[in-house]
Request: fold
Amino acid sequence: MIRVIAIDGPAASGKSSTAGLVAERLGWAHLDSGALYRALTLAALDNLGERGAGSGEPWPAQRIIGLADELPVRLVRVGQVFRPEVAGVDVEQAIRGDRVTKLVSAVAAIPDIRTWVNTRQRQAVEGLGVGGGGGGVVVDGRDIGTVVFPEAPLKIFLTATPDERARRRLSQRGEAVDGDVVRRESQALAARDAADSKRRIAPLKPASDAVLLDTTALTLAQQVTRVVELARGLFPG
Ligand code: DC
Reply:
C-alpha cells in the first residue's frame, strides 16, 4: 500500500500548515505541490518578462518548461521537507509574494505544465520509497487525491468559508484583520478558487472517496489531530 496522504482544498484553507504538522506528528515527509507551480511562475517572471494575469496562457508552455529544465526549477529534499529551488537558490520565501500569487493560477492551468509538475512530484515520492512499511509522505495541493495520487489510501479535502480563510491569510502575514481588508482578501481568494475550479484540466474538487473536513470552526491543532487520527487508523506502524 502506497503510504501517501493527499490533502486538497481551496486557497488558504490551511492545507500546507496542516500537511506539515501532520507529517511532523507521523514522522513522515511533506511535499507542497503548490510550491512547484509557484517556483515555475517565479522563474518565468524573472526570466521571460512580466506578463499580465489576463485570460490565456501567460507564456507558451514549452518556454516555461525549457527554462525550468535549464535553470533548473526543482524540489530538493531537506530532512523531511521538500524545498523549492530555482537555479540552486531556495525560493520558499520568494514564491509567496503577490506577483507570483497573482499569476500562478494561469500557469497552473496549462496542461503541459501540469504534466511536468506531476512527473516531478511522483519522482520525488518514488525517491522516498514509501510503498512499504515505515514512513510515508503527506502531499498537499488541488488535485493530489483526484489526479496525482488517486491511489492514496487517505484523502482529505479541507474547506473553510472565504471570510475565515481571508482572516487566516491576513493574520499569517501579520496584517490587520478588519472589515474592508477581509472583504478584499476574501474576494481575491474566491477569484483564485474560481480559476482553479473552472479550469478544464484537473480542476479543484474533492475525490469521490475524500474525507471532507470543514475547518471554519476548528483550530489548526484540532484539524491536525483529526487527520492524524484518521491516518493512525489506516496506516499500521
Ligand atoms: O496552494 P498554493 O496557493 O500555493 O497553490 C498555488 C497555485 O497552484 C494555486 O492557485 C493552484 C495551483 N495548484 C494546482 O493547480 N494544483 C496543485 N496540486 C497545487 C497548486
User: Anything to note?
Assistant: The chain has one domain: 4-223.
